[in-house]
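Sodium/hydrogen exchanger family protein, pasting as requested.
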Amino acid sequence: MSIHVSLDVVALIAAIVGLGVAAQVLAAKYRVPSVLFLILMGVAIGPEGLELIPPDAVGDSLSTIVGVSVAIIIFEGTFRLEYGAIWNASRAVSRMITIGAVIAFVGTALAVRLLLRASWDIAFLIGALLVATGPTVIAPILAVVPVREEVATTLEIEGIVNDVTAAVLAVVLFKAMTARHLAPGGYVWLFVQRLAMGVIVGFVVAGVVWYLLTQVEHPSETAPQTARLLALASAVIAFAAADSVFSEAGIVAAATAGFTLGSLELPYQEEILQFMRDVTLLVLSFVFITLAALLEFAELLALGVAGLAVVAVLMVVIRPLAVFVSTGRVGFTTNERLFMSFVGPRGIIPASVATLFAVRLQTEVPPTDPSGAHLLLGTVFLAILVTVVVEAGFARQIAGLLGATESEQ
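Structure tokens follow.
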């Protein structure tokens, strides 16, 4: 029996890796975000398709697997986010990651509350997660739409920064949601503990890795490999160390470690970045395809017209409002602002973190909020599916119609 189970697990992992690579190839060929193909493949082999992945395929370990995966994804994103890039960013970027993020957070939460009649806890959690646009879904669009450098930079930095801020904000809200035994005044201390622990652990791990890479001599033939492995280890170790002390602090630690190392002068930095990108692609494939074990069409259908209305409000009201408020009087044309309003697909971080939280809401004893977990997953995945298909699929056509491409100005 154990041999049979082992073979099943090996075959499952092989299938996921193979499909993940196929999704990346298709994404490169058709110039659309790979998340679209990953989700479709996951659904195809999940319980709603061929049933190759049963709902209990990974059992109780899913929460841990997704948690580590999110840590690697966030580490890679923040590693690319250099301090200098933020410091030198235009006023539009600064507004997009602050004012724009607040508008997206509050607006989405209100839409979910009013249209889906969700609890305030779930509404704000969904609002926090859907702040993130993300570089993994923005970059493929910018690769095929030649907009001005200022427009591309604004969208790219917004995606990277909001990936992290959305995850951290969601962590804080999730802890408030699940720690109801505390007095109201205890929430603030709880948040400070976890955020501080994540930052401290992240700095410490980054400092150790910096010392090992810059102050310790390595054989020239193995030095690049050592640098790559130390970077990957730092993401996992930072997450595990912080999370073992305070749950939910691991994501903050991974983000801090990635941002710190990315802002320092490291040997073999380009090799590290390329390696982390490759690892992230595999992790993304595993996470998205495996998430099909939790995603049921019934969850999406249960949202009904109200669910589609939430996504519509997110796309045609909240996103344009955030963009136009953030980019006023900073040198963008009206058509460029309209294009930026159209480009706001959701992707990796909302799906990964939503699944992590949904698993915990469902598996805690007693379960914290099983119905809320289904609403959380359904809304987030519906937003991802619609925004990726529409906004990524028609980005070139919209840019051409608006005359927002660089060649047409």
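Note for the archive: Residues 201 and 329 are 40 Å apart (CA to CA).
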